[in-house]
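Query structure, 555 tokens:
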């Protein structure tokens, strides 16, 4: 009897040829390949990759001894300190999911998400202790003992006895296990929504692995690069760069507070090669006082920006100072950045203004993303690549979340028609690059015409007196809505005559944009922001509404 040949696709998986993908193995490899290389530097504290691997295994072991394992959630409330980085490996090594909490949320919101996720353990930085304590009291009152109160571990920058004692209870050689299924949850993050109940975004090991490697490839990073943590690790797990740095055996420079002076100091003294930041941080860097900078830069500094559409003027200023900026775009639901404005060599010969304009686009899909398009939401058909027709940006693939925790209705809406719906509106250019025009809720409809607040802001950023600006809709007696500009002036601007300044801004606007785009009202002051630097337009819209409608007599 002869041997029956199997079909080419009939060969089975086995333990020798198939393993579930997880970024946790990057840390094990880094400790093997570069055991003595610096993994983390934070002030006077530093660790090697071998030490970090041991500390993360100790954390996983200590968590497991306390019953925090598969099916559990462990929360961390801390800024960019070593313990936060360690938790990105230690918590999932125990089998639990990490919830890195936004430290700028109020106690009420933190209480909601701790209760919603049923956190079994919380590690909290000493600086955030009172916030966590208040949140736990609120949670206890609201849940009325429905589940066991979480274990609380206090951490701090140096000599944190409680946190170190917690690690000491764990085994530095703990035999952590890879997930049997790469669909297993690795992290839980909450959207910085405007409602009292943010949505819990659940991410899996497969997506984290693929996105961590995609970060390195699309950005052209090299082994041993030195990365400055200007981006909060609690925001989309630091856009997955927590795991990317382990894959590259690089060095993490932790930064508790982000200032232009601290950024330039790290570049000068610690050899920083890369950092990520929202456009608002870039704006702070390019407008820093000369005595806080180190220009010209000692070497090329690569910067990745996302979180909001960066004004071309800011991109141009960064380029002129020697920073090489890569523009990306994504959401919490897509592991952070999942599109990139991939730079084309032929753009090198273009004028700086044209380069900045092209780099302000959101670009093309990441390597780990299988589908990206802009569609007409009425029929889900792709919009033409004309750079004019507006549609919704949609995603598909491994770089999309598992779903929202305990929220089937939101999942049904988000995943309708086989795509993840971003809620962002954009256009598709003839070269296939996408460009955001606005959030659907941020479009201003004036006299029946749609106005992109982003495009108005991009023009206003060119005004010499404006440091930051956000444009929202204000009720208008004649047009229904009209643009209202909230402006923060540069520090050196004489703000004594705000009426004259407002008139000057409007005059400037009339010379640069269509008449119906021109803001009919200008408000000066600080702009409210989220922890990741996004301007909170919902609060500005509420303020504009409180101001009442623009009268017909006004220009």
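Result returned for the query:
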């Amino acid at each position: 009897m002869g041997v029956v040949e199997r079909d080419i696709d009939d060969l089975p998986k086995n333990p020798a040829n198939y393993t579930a993908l997880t970024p946790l193995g990057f840390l094990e490899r880094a400790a093997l390949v570069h055991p003595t290389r610096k993994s983390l530097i934070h002030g006077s504290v530093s660790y090697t990759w071998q030490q970090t691997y041991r500390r993360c295994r100790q954390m996983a072991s200590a968590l497991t001894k306390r019953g925090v394992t598969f099916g559990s959630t462990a929360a961390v409330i801390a800024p960019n300190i070593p313990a936060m980085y360690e938790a990105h490996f230690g918590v999932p090594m125990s089998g639990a999911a990490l919830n890195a909490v936004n430290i700028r949320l109020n106690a009420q919101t933190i209480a909601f998400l701790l209760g919603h996720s049923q956190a079994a353990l919380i590690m909290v930085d000493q600086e955030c202790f009172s916030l966590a304590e208040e949140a736990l009291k609120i949670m206890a009152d609201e849940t009325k003992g429905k589940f066991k109160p979480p274990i609380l571990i206090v951490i701090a920058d140096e000599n944190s006895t409680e946190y170190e004692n917690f690690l000491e209870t764990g085994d530095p050689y703990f035999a952590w296990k890879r997930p049997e299924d790469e669909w297993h949850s690795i992290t839980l993050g909450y959207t910085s929504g405007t409602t009292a109940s943010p949505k819990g975004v659940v991410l899996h090991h497969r997506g984290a692995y693929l996105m961590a490697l995609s970060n390195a490839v699309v950005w052209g990073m090299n082994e041993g690069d030195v990365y400055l943590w200007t981006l909060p690790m609690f925001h989309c797990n630091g856009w997955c760069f927590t795991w990317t740095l382990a894959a590259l055996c690089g060095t993490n420079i932790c930064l508790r507070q982000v200032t232009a002076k601290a950024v330039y100091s790290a570049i000068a003294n610690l050899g920083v090669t890369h950092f990520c930041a929202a456009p608002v941080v870039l704006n702070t860097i390019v407008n820093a006082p000369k005595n806080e900078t180190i220009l010209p830069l000692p070497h090329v500094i690569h910067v990745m920006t996302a979180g909001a559409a960066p004004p071309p003027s800011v991109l141009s200023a960064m380029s002129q100072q020697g920073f090489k900026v890569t523009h990306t775009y994504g959401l919490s639901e897509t592991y952070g950045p999942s599109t990139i404005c991939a730079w084309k060599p032929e753009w090198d010969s273009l004028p700086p203004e044209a380069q900045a304009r092209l780099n302000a686009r959101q670009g093309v899909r990441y390597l780990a993303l299988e589908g990206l398009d802009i569609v007409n939401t009425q029929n889900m058909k792709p919009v033409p690549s004309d750079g004019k027709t507006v549609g919704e940006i949609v995603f598909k693939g491994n770089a999309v979340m598992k779903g929202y925790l305990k929220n089937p209705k939101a999942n049904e809406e988000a995943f309708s028609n086989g795509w993840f719906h971003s809620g962002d509106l954009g256009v598709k250019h003839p070269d296939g690059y996408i460009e955001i025009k606005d959030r659907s809720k941020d479009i201003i409809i004036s006299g029946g015409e749609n106005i992109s607040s982003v495009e108005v802001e991009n023009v206003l950023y060119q005004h010499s007196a404006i440091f930051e600006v956000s444009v929202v809709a204000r009720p208008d007696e004649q047009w229904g809505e009209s643009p209202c500009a909230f402006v923060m002036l540069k520090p050196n601007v004489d703000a004594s005559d705000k009426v004259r300044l407002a008139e000057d801004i409007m005059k400037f606007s009339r010379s640069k944009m269509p008449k119906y785009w021109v803001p009919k009202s200008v408000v000066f002051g600080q702009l409210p922001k989220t922890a990741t630097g996004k301007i909170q337009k919902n609060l500005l819209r509420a303020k504009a509404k409180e101001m009442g409608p623009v009268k017909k007599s006004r220009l």
